[in-house]
Amino acid sequence: MSKIFAQGVVCPLDKNNVDTDQIIPKQFLTSVSREGFGQAMFFDWRYLADGSPNPDFVINKPEYQGASILLTRANFGCGSSREHAPWAIQQSGFNVIIAESFADIFFNNSVNNAMLLIQLSKTNIDLLFNRCTQGPQHWQIDLQSQEIMFGNNAAMGFNIDADIKQRLLSGLDFIGSSEQLNPQITDYEQSRKASQPWLG
Amino acid sequence: MGQATANAQTLYQKIYASHVVGKLNPSTDLLYVDRHLIHEVTSPQAFSGLKLAKRSVRRPDLTFATMDHNVSTQRRSIDAAGETSRKQLEALAANCDENQIPLLDLTHPDQGIVHVIGPEQGLTQPGMIIVCGDSHTSTHGAFGALAFGIGTSEVEHVLATQTLPQQQAKTLKVEINGKLSSHVTPKDVIMAVIGKLGTAGGNGYVAEFSGSAIRAMSMEGRMTLCNMSIEMGAKAGLIAPDDTTFAYIKGKAHAPKEEHWQGAVQYWQSLYSDIDAVFDQTVTLDASSITPQITWGTNPEQVMAVDQSVPEPASFTDPTKRDAAERALAYMGLEPGQKLTDCKVDVVFIGSCTNSRIEDLRAAASVVQGKQVAAGVRALVVPGSGMVKRQAENEGLASIFKDAGFEWREPGCSMCLGMNDDRVAAGERCASTSNRNFEGRQGRGARTHLVSPAMAAAAAIAGKFVNIAAATTETGDRA
Q: Which of A119, B140, B261, B445 is the most buried (most CB within 10 A)?
């Protein structure tokens, strides 16, 4: 198995506080499916009022077509808990997001969809944006060694929670692993009923 | 993490510890969930996932559903908000029916916004863990419950196991002492806190609000406060329960029955942060220094006192904040130095899980009484639930709004997020009692200014933003 978790073109989205209303606006939330959100990602920024692509928005630029690594800034994914946001990003071809920080719910939602979210210091994020100004970037991510590899033997390390790393590497079933504690859940329910009968 | 004394615990740590079912790995615990609230938007894919994996709902009796996000507020009919909304509402009804999950649908007199009806029905109680596929689940923290929003994969996980994997969050104490000035509401308090801490200031933390100003607040006010803790990125907001809390819960449909009441109250009284508990961060505010607040930008930290001027982007030393301010002013159609009290409003929205409860409507009605909505202003009042609506009608508040020219609507999330047809048009300026002023939140190109219910009502009457504190002193028409 390749030690490369992900690789591809990097799309730099140079904004702080990108909220999930921007990532996937309300009108797409009436779907009952997990699929079909890719084209709606960043809808209001990505398309002009007449429906044509906004040529100024970074995602639409020719050099970033097919990008699979999204580089952005602080507090990415704040606001609404809608999991449609990581679905839209993933269905647009991205499986790695690198940012200075992420909103908590968005972070969990993304991990639950097997996406890799890398958090780096502001200094390192600035360095990565600088690289992007030098021309289109193609990076490889080695999750085992926790490195972003730029080519020519240049790399940057990153930290990741050991549990999340394990989940991403082994593809553990989110519900299935908790179900292994089913006997403890049953025990807990029994003692809860005895000590706090009003809870039901 | 920050426990100096071995046994001293914060309220959050007490609730967390009492819900640990077991350990999944060294850093992750499996926590039991006491209440799972669901709605039409973030649950259909979770039910499909369950079905696909041939799993069933473990505790339908601890799961409660309502229809709120995309219902029409004009007519209480499942097909009134369009075809795709109807399909989603029908999917919720079918999923609840199939799994024996109680549902407050559009035919139920108590239907309403999930974070309004949970407390009203007595489903929200101190010491519980409450989750819902909605970020404003933080609202329920007002009762001393650990309540937080989750995504659809987690909804599926809770449906299947009644548990959720969690890691301990950091703890933040927000202490607010003193007395609020008249016309300063819990909405102004939380907006001032967000202005101080920033939209990401609470990331990774559970925030506990304490101090004499919090103790003096009603449950409605505490809910407004906790509701918006997510707007500073906090995982949850918390307020230790007290007699105000217990009095609110007593007698509610799902409150502990008479034979369990004493036992429940006794347990709830143990739910507070120990005196020597150590928080990872503490922030203190003087209640008397808080003035009526209004947002000028496109995220909730871009907020100021209503009598201040729109800031100069150059005044921000952080270049990313400066850049964000420039972009926000361009989107909002505002100039640096401008006073929002000179700024005309097109739409006024009084509603949402932040400010659609009876007290909010009373505060707004007291400003509106005997006056008329300004020409050219479209003003809506959307009560948070059937119960709030009936009570407001019985108290004569509905007539005050209608006589003044407000639209008096059916319960739902409505113009807070515009999933139904209640939207603000591009370029229109809206005084809104909701919780998010993000670009496009109320409609593409819509310009949202977050304010308290009284400030929204005053804006509707004046046709522009008003400093409620100054206006009422000048005219002397309110105490």
A: B140
DSSP symbol at B132: E
Checking if the pLDDT of B176 tops 90, the result is yes
Q: Which of B199, B184, B232, B115 is nearest to B451 (CA)?
A: B184
Plot region of B48 (φ>0 → left; ψ -120 to 50 → alpha; else → beta): alpha
Q: List the 216-255 stretch of B: residues with Cβ below 8 A of A.
A: 233, 235
Chain A residues touching residue B55 (CB < 8 angstroms) = 175
Locate the DSSP E strands across chain A.
Answer: 6-12, 69-71, 96-99, 116-119, 138-142, 147-151, 154-157
Distance, CA of B249 to CA of B128 (rounded, Å): 14
Query: Which residues does B94 contact at the CB level (< 8 Å), separation at least 6?
Result: none
CB B177 within 8 A of CB B287: yes
DSSP count for chain B of H helices, then E strands = 16, 19
Q: Is A190 on the interface with B (CB under 8 A)?
A: no
Query: CA-CA distance, B136 to B148, in Å (whole number)?
Result: 7
Q: What is the pTM of this model?
A: 0.96
| Sequence-separated (6 or more) residues with CB below 8 Å from residue B334 | B296, B310, B340, B343
How is chain A split among helix, strand and coil, in percent rounded to 5? 40, 20, 40
pLDDT in tens, A27-86: 999 999 999 999 999 999 999 999 999 999 999 999 999 999 999 999 999 999 999 999
DSSP code for B359: H
Percent of chain B with pLDDT strictly greater than 70:
97
Contacts of A178 in chain B (CB under 8 A): 24, 30, 157, 161, 163, 165
Angle (CA) B436 B437 B438, round 5°: 95
Closest CA to B290 of B172, B217, B191, B215: B191
Q: B121: closest CA among B136, B143, B100?
A: B143
Nearest-Cα distance to chain A for B217, in Å, is 26
Please judge whether B419 and A196 are an interchain contact, meaning their C-beta atoms are less than 8 angstroms apart.
no
Token pair 């609230």 is found at B37
pLDDT of B474 reads 44
Q: pLDDT exceeding 70 applies to what percent of chain A?
A: 99
B281-286 and B347-350 beta bridge pairing: unpaired
In this prediction, residue A200 carries a pLDDT of 87
Token code pair at residue A197 = 């009968």
Alpha carbon separation from B19 to A189, A191, B57, B274 (Å, rounded): 10, 11, 20, 18
Show the tokens assigned to B437: 């002023």
- When scoring B67, B203, B303 by the number of chain A Cβ atoms within 10 A, the one with the most, hence best to mutate, is B203
Alpha-carbon span B67 to B114, nearest angstrom: 8
Q: Which of residues 279-338 of B touch A (CB under 8 A)?
A: 299, 320-321, 324
Helices (H), B68-177: 83-99, 114-120, 152-161
Percent of chain B with pLDDT over 90: 95
Torsion of the alpha carbons at B137, A104, A185 and B143, rounded to the nearest 10: -30
Do B429 and B447 contact (CB within 8 A), yes or no? yes
Residue range B437-478, pLDDT digits in tens: 999 999 999 999 999 999 999 999 999 999 999 876 444 344
CB-CB neighbours of A57 under 10 Å? 16
Nearest to B452 by CA among B185, B123, B213: B185
Partner B contacted by A93 (CB < 8 A): no
